[in-house]
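INTERNAL AUDIT FORM
Audit reference: QA-55
Scope: verify that the stored structure record matches its stored sequence.
Auditor: D.O.
Record contents follow.
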Amino acid sequence: MTRVVQTSGRSKLWSDRLHILFLAMWLMSPSLINAARNSTGQTWAEHDIWDVLMESYPSKMLPRRNTTHGTLCKVNLLIRGISKVDDMKMEYTIQLTLRQEWNDDRLAFDDRGVHEYLTAPDPEKIWTPDLFFQNEREGHAHSLMAPNVLLRLYRNGDIMKSSRITLTLACPMDFHFFPMDRQVCEIRLASYGFTKDDLDLQWSTLGSSVQVAAGLNLPRFILNEVKTDTCTSTTSTGVYACLKVSLFLERRWAYFLVHTYIPSIMMLFISWISFWISPESTAPRIVLCMAPLFGLASIGTNVNDQVPQVSYTKASDVWFGFCNILLFSALVVAAIVNYRKRMDKLKETQQKDRMEYGRDFNLEAQHRLMGPSKSAPSGEEEEAVSKPKPKGRPCCFGRLCLPFDRVEKIDYLARFLFPVIFLIFNIIYWPCYLSKYD
């Protein structure tokens, strides 16, 4: 019984070996495959072909390592989505489909057109380019239901590998024009261990090198343009091929227009109301200048919290700085008007006291000179003596005289001077910071 089982096992082993030998002869000899197909009417399955190809395949060796020219890898990208652009950390998160194409003549086969291509059941057993992302901070390949990796082998040895990955990439940003800025974020792909002589990278020439998924929408940015380029990297260990994708992101600054610029303009208008209030109403004038000043400081703090602290001046800093200057100037004008008005009242009071004292002195002197027989001055004369002089003088500019005193002149000038200055500032500010889009 034991001898029968051993004989059966040996027969099965020899049968498997003959099966593999016949498959190898079939792949290499067109006459054998045609004979087999004509005799049986069947073809070999994909896994049988893979078994033969993987029998002596060196998966750790670079294709064409001993030839005069290295392996050429063509790259194609599909941008599936950009989930986050972080201004504080200067990074962004992107989901990609990375496609690589290269030729490995060690895997070429000839099945006389039976299969257009073969799908690798285990892509890890095939040599693949050692690509990495130079500006990567974090990343992972997707494998929730199954590994999102596809590898196809064509008859001439061409290989196409497609994989879905999510990356967090560094993106150095310039905030000179914030919040009307335009950032350029890059995807830099290079070979880690093979120099350009062994492994060269090239953008795919079939169709677009970088595609963007339809319906891609970012909450705070607009993807205006995508450009591809090369970025050969030279280090102490050699020259390495590198590919670069530049993503041009324009910030949606309508949010800042509604929540920053318009409220700050309204606060300036509120402060200018103080110029139309009577100089005697000191408390309302001070409140109308102080409240917008605190409100503008709060808005400026909220805006600056959205970007990192930088050593240069941003467009928002220029805006808030100038608005703060106007608000502080309005507060100074209110203080000056209040001070001048108080001084005028003090002078008027002192002048009235002097006139009262002078009137009493004159009446007493007149009484002494005229004697008791002389009659006292009439009521009209007394009124003429005690009548104060008209307060102030009209403010005149050449032949044009305004119907108020010199204290009210300050309010009158501020009513027109402040809006004109702010209008001139806007004429300079907006073209300066929006001209970068031309």
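Auditor finding: record pair retrieved intact. Residues 1-10, 25-42, 380-392 have pLDDT under 50 and may be disordered.
Action required: none
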